[in-house]
Design a protein that fits this description.
Layout lengths: L2 H4 L6 H32 L2 H7 L13 H33 L6 H33 L15 H33 L1
Length: 187
């Protein structure tokens, strides 16, 4: 590979701003639609779909689900979603700064780091939420047929890896910004 092939083609400032505006809109769409989708899912999902979601065997729910179980399940799974949406809110603010041409600022870097933190907390909460949901869904089962399911999936591991990657990138960018400011002080 020659040196021309190894160099990345930089995005123009205008293109970064345009893409960032689209990303702000995408973040708003997620902030609005994901809570609605969660409510719709818990209102309409079959018992079989809910058992799969809670890492339970297919026939784990032997008693009919009652309304409070659906509401409690939705509330439990809303916690990781809320944490994820807090991260999306940080990303929206970061993209808003990019759209205004404020790319390499300490505030944008801090927002990127906060996004990563919220995403990591959401992944951890999701693991706990699926266990709590398994208990809620089988609570009306007769004694001896109730379940506690614990599961860690590749989606959780990947999400934690992604959050760590973004957090590290934000930390490196912040360190570079600090060094650049120190160098400006010497000139």
């Amino acid at each position: 590979m020659n040196s021309a092939e190894s160099r990345a083609v930089p995005l123009s400032s205008q293109r970064v701003r345009r893409i960032s505006r689209w990303m702000v809109a995408a973040c708003w769409a997620l902030l609005v639609t994901l809570p609605l989708a969660l409510a719709y899912y818990w209102a309409t999902a079959s018992a079989d779909q809910l058992t799969a979601h809670a890492n339970l065997p297919s026939q784990a729910i032997s008693a009919p689900l009652v309304l409070w179980q659906r509401i409690a399940g939705a509330a439990v799974t809303a916690v990781p979603l809320g944490l994820l949406l807090a991260g999306v809110w940080q990303a929206r603010r970061c993209f808003g700064m990019f759209a205004q041409g404020q790319v390499f600022t300490l505030q944008a870097t801090a927002l990127l780091g906060r996004f990563a933190g919220w995403v990591a907390w959401a992944a951890l909460a999701s693991m706990l939420a699926s266990s709590a949901t398994s208990v809620l869904l089988t609570l009306n089962n007769p004694p001896g047929q109730r379940h506690l399911s614990v599961g860690i999936g590749s989606d959780h591991v990947f999400t934690l890896f992604f959050a760590g990657l973004v957090w590290l990138m934000a930390a490196v960018i912040a360190q570079g910004q600090t060094l650049a400011e120190e160098n400006e002080g010497f000139v």
